[in-house]
Amino acid sequence: MWFNKSVFYQIYTLNFCDAPSFNDGIVEEHRILRVLAFSDYLKKLGIKAVYFNPIFSSDHHGYDTRDYRRLDERLGHNEDFKKVVDDLHKKGIKVVLDGVFNHVGRGFFAFEDVRSNRENSRYRDWFHIDFNGNSDYNDGFWYEGWEGHYELVKLNLENPEVQDYLKESVKFWIEYFDIDGIRLDVAYSLPRWFMAMLSDFARSFKPDFFMVGEVLGDNAGYMFDEGHLDAITDYPGYKGMWSSFNSLNMFEIAHTLKRNMFDMYRGKSLLTFLDNHDVDRIASKLSDKKKLPLLFALQLTLPGIPCIYYGSEWGTEGKKIPGMSDDSLRPAFTKSEPNELTEYIEQLIHLRNEHPALNSGQFKELLLTNKQYVFEREAEGERIIVALNIDDAPFVAHFNANSGTGEDLLTNEKHDFGAGSELAPLSIAIWKTE
Predict the structure, then answer these.
(1) Whole-prediction pTM value?
(2) How many CB atoms lie under 10 A from the CB of residue 210?
(3) Which pLDDT does position 324 carry in this prediction?
(4) Cα(170)–Cα(165) distance, rounded to whole angstroms?
């Protein structure tokens, strides 16, 4: 499928487009069209799919939906986003939307009806409500909020009317916008049957429709078979990558990879990332910023579906501030800001796009130390060896290359494996073997 051979790009849409924090329901600017100025840049970078965080009408941050079938008023009109999708498609870039189906905002039309009409509302069974209690908002009734966040009203997904409403909303996204996939927000909170139902429904319109679930932990293999998902988010791999670099302990990421590939998720796809809208920017997380290019190189040569968070390919920094908003992780941009790091990442993405061994090849570990990691990727008769050295000193690596020579795809230089392979300090080599 196309998604297994794609590098994704994530955009936190509301903040990226510099939208106001709260939605007054009035369209004043067509901010979503700002994405059009980035589409040529994304194509040049080698991106094959863009994943947009919530774009539909919401109260505040996008995950508190008011209306699943209209673009957030702070971003513009539906036809504006359709222009964006059409433009990306013309450049060979797929579009994936955030599907927030576990909960809605207090401004959601059905919940507003319940607040007005209480027991007489036809939507009372769309939620988990006790009219004998009270809420943190003094509504005169209690309702279930997502994980205690009462601005996020939990939907009753057992209700056939709710199921039909959400399915028809997805149908609208596919038929009107022509989207190519959905990322299921808090998939770990969703019933497995619901994910399977929604996945099958979407694929009835597009057989190659991509369904990925947000999973924060691990050992969630049931998501694939029972939830009919194509991929889940790889938080253990995310932690393993930055932590291995900071602690100079490549054994951590190697252990996580082997656990993922050969134990919990054998033959399955994971969405890999170095950062996203919920965690510190990787440029702020990494203790030695000189190693930032190497960390991107590792992500883009390992198995998985790599996803790059907007701006991180420029080295953008940002840290979570406890008790505060996450706006520091989600800056606005009016234009792309490529630099030397971006050029390096672009080279890596194009190598991954061009070489089957890198985008979908089998994985085999060849050498592992605290500061060095050598592995092999192989597919379609192509074999590539990746050798990483995160030490400040050179290192001579001895491993069985099953080949006499190779060509470094980054430098085009020939390499002889015969007497050991010298790895320069803070370097990565990507050798295509003879």
Answers:
(1) 0.97
(2) 29
(3) 80
(4) 9
